[in-house]
Amino acid sequence: MPRRFHCFSILIVLLLLLAGCQPVSAPAPTNAGQALGKHVDGDWPDMSWDEVLAEASGQTVNWYHWGGSDQWNEFIGVTLNNQAQELYNITINPVHVNDTAEVVNKVLGEAEAGRNADGSVDLIWINAENFITLQQADLLFGPYTDALPNVEYIDTSSGYYNYDAGRAINGQESLWGTSQMVIEYDSAVLNPPTNIYDFFRYVCDNPGKFTYPAPPDFTGTGFITNLLYYYTGQTELWLGSPDDVQAQFDELAPALWEALNDIKPCLWRGGETYPNDVTELRELVKNGEVAFAMTFGYGDTTNLIADGVYPETMRTMMFDTGMVANAHYVAIPFNSPHKAAAMVIANLIQSPENQLALMRDVGGTPAVVISRLPQEIQDAFAALDLGPAAYPLDQFTPALPQLGDMQPVLEQGWRTNVLEK
After folding, report:
1. What Cα–Cα distance (Å) separates residue 375 from each residue in 120, 151, 321, 365, 378?
2. What is the pLDDT of residues 2-14, one digit of tens each?
């Protein structure tokens, strides 16, 4: 071996020996979750939020949601997706559905097939009976809602936070937004009173201009639920199970049926038929056949005016005794492989900035308490121009609860005692 190569070899050996004598430092962890190696599957709830963020980084959330609104699709697929990628290295994959029941059936089917860890659904826009179905089947992850950092902006003592359609949430779905029914009316044709008794007298003084969707349409059931509370004088009672309150319902509900039958001849087409849903009802408004519609979508009326569907004279009203309200949530299936990222998205949509965007961009009503938000966000809420059709936020009448297990009883009662009379 030439001497120069022999010396070089000795040098290499000496360097390697020297390196072996030095302590080797591990690379600094980028965050606590990576250092500890914790994962939601197996370690939850014994995890910090930093550990959740660590696991979530790089994940894709398959978010199944109703896809019937361009504004909502844009908000989820573009606005929220961009934020998730920039802030947390998370991608949202929106999966549009026509009916949330489709997603519920998918999760049920995967559970039946034994897919307990590699489900196709990470997040669902959900509420009411769809939530109850998955909760009863023990197919939801949680509790997790109290762990979301943005919960500080939400009234955790509220019915919205704790109950959905009369059922205890138990931390298995997190609030996204709320909605309260409003009645839309054409102010160029009518200017109705807000008391229910006077409203019905007014309807009969102006026959043919009012109707409502036939239950079990969601909005139609919401409308007669308002009347159930008014004519029976009971609210919380009807959140019980039929086994507990059926006798009281049979005793008190006839006042409701009587009121609805009294106005039947005053309705569109003499109450002989009813629209199947809000879409059909709005067509009647558009064609000038009726002057009223109703919705749970706060910004719907303004958007429909802007789109030329409604006349510019459409306005909204609430009954002075209150209007039925509901909330919409997101939930994480038991077999989601990306629970950490799903929780991050659930927290992201509760942020002050996105609660503002919810109202500004898609006409949703926020789930947060506005007075708890940073002052600049409060000011931005106050500065929103929601259009003349939007009911003032500070004038909302009491939010009345949705029915739970008594809802089918009410719907069947309407069919038997009103529709078929």
Report:
1. 40, 17, 32, 19, 5
2. 343 343 344 333 3
